[in-house]
Amino acid sequence: MKFDKIKSLFHKLQQKPVIACAVLAILLTFILEILGRRSLLEAIQYFVGSPMMFFYNALIIMLTLSLALLFKRRYFILSLISIIWLGFGIANFVLLGFRTTPFSAIDLTLVPYALSIIDVYLSKAEIITLTVILVLVLIGIIIIAIRAPKHKEKIHYLRSIIVVATLSALVVLFSVIGSQTQILESRFGNLAAAYENYGFAYCLSNSFIDTGIKKPQTYSEETMNGIINDLNQDDGAEDAATPNIIFIQLESFFDINYLKNVQFSENPLPNFTKLKEEYPSGFLNVPSVGAGTANTEFEVITGMSLDYFGAGEYPYKTILLEETCESLPYNLKERGYNAFAIHNNRASFYGRNEVFCSLGFDTFISKEYMQDLEYTGASWAKDECLIDEILKSLNSTENQDFVYTITVEGHGKYSSKVLDGTETLEFTMPDNYDQEAYAAFFKLQQDVDQFIGDLIDALEQVDEETVLVMYGDHLPSLEIQASDLENGNVYQTEYVIWNNMDLKAE
Fold first, then answer.
1. pLDDT on residue 148
2. Residues 414, 417, 418: CA angle, nearest 5 degrees
3. Do the beta carbons of residue 471 and residue 284 sit within 8 Å?
4. 285: which strand partners?
5. In this structure, are residues 318 and 131 in contact, taking their beta carbons and an 8 Å threshold?
6. CA quadruple 110, 111, 114, 115: dihedral positive or negative?
7. Alpha helices in 373-434, H assignment, sequence order
8. What is the DSSP pairing of strand 244-250 with strand 466-472?
9. In which residue ranges of the chain is pLDDT below 70?
10. 415 and 440 in contact (C-beta within 8 Å)?
11. Quick one: which H or E segment has residue 405?
């Protein structure tokens, strides 16, 4: 009896395809919010607390589903579009288990890099299971394509086009009104907060459309000439010292003494602590947590904020593939510097081998050109090898050098494999913390701190004026909250500036 009622309901929906699209869109929206919030309760709270935004997201999904009305194979098209939305939602769910930044359009370009390190984060059994699931989904799509019935009645193209056009107009109208009334934001300062406030479908759709930097309203030839005149004024830079300049971007590094709920038996980072006490240091605002190394890198090298780019955008995968960009290397090369980039990971990761030339680097030394590397239990190269590479770069030229170095030793996954039976730091923390993951992370931080000390020792032997800038690229993917930190901000790491020129902080 119940089966007959369900069958009758489906038959009625077949007769009213627009209503069927609306019902399916609402259902998909709710599922996507459950996946994105990783909570059924929070999805319900979002529906109750922000019904307008919920139905706006449903309207966006309904627009994509309505395209099926233009085809005889509409049931297959509906299924395919639904599977794509669900696939995006599941990808978002999985990614949020490793980082705080939700899934966005740019992540589709990062799939090759994700596949290259998948064995670091997933076991062989998990990889096999994932592969089987993907194969089953593909088989399911093929079966649906073969078995799904065709629409028997004549397609009313004009009516269908009107439906699609009307839905498109409603989406655009709501977007414009929402933007003007500030109900909606199209530029996201905090991507995670945007997904939480505005919904998965809207934010993901926006990430496909919103890329690059929009032309400022005040941009004009007169404005640019004024800026050039200001820059050309003599500021005494010609008489400034020209020491070697070394930047070290430390993977997932921050002062773990700031963790309020963790007590250590001894200072885990003695070298970094001493440097902060004796040399200029401070906090650095970074664009992401748990991932996004290349974006911190981009901001530091260019001085440009990611806030001006599209939602979740990686300039390394967009504009820098087409254009060069003003940067530290270009500016320093005008003063006679040579520009080196060094990274103890694959050159192709984040496409650095393609974009570093656009940023002005003369030489890029990656893992492929390094020998006798040692690896962590998580299969990342240890950082000690970078000391020799930095010294070789400094010694390879007669002029002063800019050496930008990207470390990788502190990279996750943080597991018992990292500990590998070695002596670990004693610490206490609440039981609800992942003790094993934190122990592994702390061990890596200690090793990086030792690398910092060894690097300073090596540079003290160099008979050239040198400035060394070190900073963390982002916090690790350990679900650290702002309330867990003394500084109260998960989007902050620290920098310290060592030098052998007796430079003081101003």
1. 75
2. 55
3. yes
4. 492
5. no
6. negative
7. 385-395, 416-419
8. parallel
9. 1-15, 121, 151-152, 186-189, 234-239, 420-424, 504-506
10. yes
11. strand 401-406
Q: How many other CB atoms are there within 10 angstroms of residue 299's CB atom? A: 18
β-partners of residue 259 are 485
Q: What is the pTM of this model?
A: 0.80
Distance CA 434, CA 229 (A): 56
Could you count the other beta carbons within 10 Å of the beta carbon of residue 421? 7
Please give the full DSSP string across 313-363, using - where no structure is assigned: --GGGTGGGT-----HHHHHHTTT-EEEEEESS-TTGGGHHHHTTTTT-SE
Q: Which two tokens stand for residue 7?
A: 């069958």
Q: Which residues contact 151 (CB under 8 A, 6 or more apart)?
A: 71, 72, 73, 74, 75
- Contact between 295 and 311 under an 8 Å Cβ cutoff? The reply is no
In the block, which residue shows the tokens 């962590």?
376
Domains along the sequence of the chain with CATH: 10-209 (no CATH), 240-499 (3.40.720.10)
Environment class of residue 3 by beta-carbon count within 10 Å: exposed (0-12), middle (13-18) or buried (19+)? exposed
Give the C-alpha separation, 131 to 150, whole Å. 31
Please answer whether residues 409 and 345 qualify as being in contact, where contact means their C-beta atoms are separated by less than 8 angstroms: no
